[in-house]
Design goal:
The chain has 251 residues and is α/β, with parallel strands linked by helices. The protein has 11 helices and 9 strands. Strand 1, helix 1 and strand 2 form a beta-alpha-beta unit.
């Protein structure tokens, strides 16, 4: 199964952090990460109950560190976009669909949960690879932080053994950088750049690319660049990439 990390972004109440540790352990998860948390004391320990070990071993990290050490990042949100013209919070998946997306991955998956008062910012959601939401009743759609963690953990419990090794964070970042440069080469309008890159991140984020697939996309981009760009600006595509990949595949 993938390694699941529960990440609380700037939690406001220590009781919620304690309850989160408790519900994580209920479903077999122990890796809790806190970003700029509130002060944690006796209340958090009391709420954690017999999951005090999960609480005590929780790590404090920055958001950048979370992204740097994750293969994929999932943003959970109750504020959604319902138009394809606004890709920041779309497309979105239910917890059950999230299980189907990541269930067989050999990867570190970090799931972000936002602040109790206003959730995750647009920028935090935009950086994520996958957007997940919990379907709630319109009569009372706001769900407690620890309850939201519990729903996600329930759906992701007892995942099967991982069989698909994902491209690393560095490999995906390199691919996004190449695509961004490619948009420059084809004179993609600047005012569309942010939404275009967000859409690309959404598409590739849910495709669960392997390193070989990343390499293939790089190769296609380079060959395209070589055909329409001056030779001094774009060297010919390398001929050894495929053979190198084949060699690695056979090992």
């Amino acid at each position: 199964m993938p390694h699941i990390r529960i990440v609380l972004v700037e939690p406001l109440y220590e009781g919620n952090v304690g309850f989160t540790a408790r519900v994580m352990k209920n479903f077999g998860f122990t890796d809790l990460i806190l970003i700029n948390p509130c002060t944690l004391g006796n209340e958090a320990l009391i709420r954690a109950s017999h999951a005090d070990d999960v609480l005590r071993q929780a790590r404090i990290m920055t958001l950048d560190e979370v992204f740097a050490t994750s293969h994929r990042v999932v943003a959970t949100t109750g504020s959604l976009s319902y138009s394809a013209c606004h890709p920041t919070r779309m497309p979105f998946y239910s917890p059950k669909e999230l299980r189907e997306l990541i269930g067989e991955l050999d990867a570190t998956i970090s799931i972000l949960f936002g602040r109790e008062n206003w959730g995750l910012s647009n920028e935090e959601v935009r950086r994520a690879d996958i957007v997940c939401t919990i379907p709630t009743s319109p009569l009372y759609p706001i769900i407690n932080l620890s309850h939201a963690v519990g729903v996600i953990c329930y759906e992701l419990a007892n995942l099967p053994k991982a069989v698909i090794p994902l491209a690393t964070k560095e490999e995906m970042d390199h691919l996004y950088e190449h695509i961004d440069q490619y948009l420059d080469r084809v004179d993609h309008p600047g005012f569309k750049r942010e939404s275009t890159m967000t859409l690309i991140r959404r598409v590739l984020g849910r495709c669960n690319l392997t390193w070989r697939e990343c390499s293939t996309i790089h190769g296609l981009l380079r060959r395209s660049e070589w055909h329409f760009a001056p030779p001094e600006q774009c060297p010919p595509p390398a001929q050894h990439d495929l053979s190198k990949s084949d060699h690695n595949d056979k090992q």
